Amino acid sequence: MNKIWIIARRELASFFDSLIAYVIIIMFLGFTGFFTWLTGNNVFLMGQASLQVFFQIGFWTLFFFIPALTMKMLAEETRSGTIELLSTKAISDWEIVVGKFVACLLLVIIALTCTIPYYATVSQLGSIDHGAVVGGYLGLVLLSAGYISIGLFASSITNNQIVAFLIALLIGVFFHLLFDIMGFSLRGAAGQVLNYLSMRTHFDSLSRGVIDSRDLIYFFSVISIGLTFAQAMLSRRNWQS
């Protein structure tokens, strides 16, 4: 656990040293703030104190931002050979993967924490559903964790950052959009299975303030599978050497 935390702290510090963290946070706040407060169906047009607009904007913004965040995490280490250096320090592949996962997730949580003023402002407009707010933020954190695990897997199978970004986006679009569309198009068991695989289904449930064990199991399953696959791809280099 200590080694995981050391890796997580090192990666988180590298985000801020290279200004990636500031760019991600500023762009996230810019996108969500612009679409939440200034355009389209902004919070002032809803006629009620609610952060649903922000949660829906965050749902899409994080989908695009997270592959950009994770694309270099393992691909760059593999390209530069530093992944081998880490292995000589008696750090397991699992600890490397989880450490990088924790660093990415902490950066997303920091970005989400910066939106607390949104909640403070909206709560001044009227009676706000605090359960829906907690569920919405929990949904964004779990959604991000799922996409981070997918992004790390994509980054583990190539040493090219752009390829890792595109693979993560390609896998993500199935969970983010296509499973949802196909689930509504098909009837019977196939439709139910595809609907269950959709991130939208589980995120919408949480953002309404409904904490269902089925949604938690879904997100933790996606996270576990993504991290396990990433660890397996890293371990493959040991079999090949």
From TrEMBL:
The keyword Membrane applies. The keyword Cytoplasm does not apply. It holds the Pfam family ABC2_membrane_2. It is a multi-pass membrane protein. Keywords: Cell membrane, Membrane, Transmembrane, Transmembrane helix. Its main location: membrane. The chain crosses the membrane at residues 12-37, 57-75, 96-120, 132-155, 162-179, 216-234. InterPro entries: ABC-2_transporter_component. It is found in: Cell membrane. PANTHER family: MEMBRANE COMPONENT OF ABC TRANSPORTER YHHJ-RELATED, MULTIDRUG ABC TRANSPORTER PERMEASE YBHS-RELATED. This is ABC transporter permease. It comes from Reichenbachiella carrageenanivorans. The lineage of its organism: Bacteria, Pseudomonadati, Bacteroidota, Cytophagia, Cytophagales.
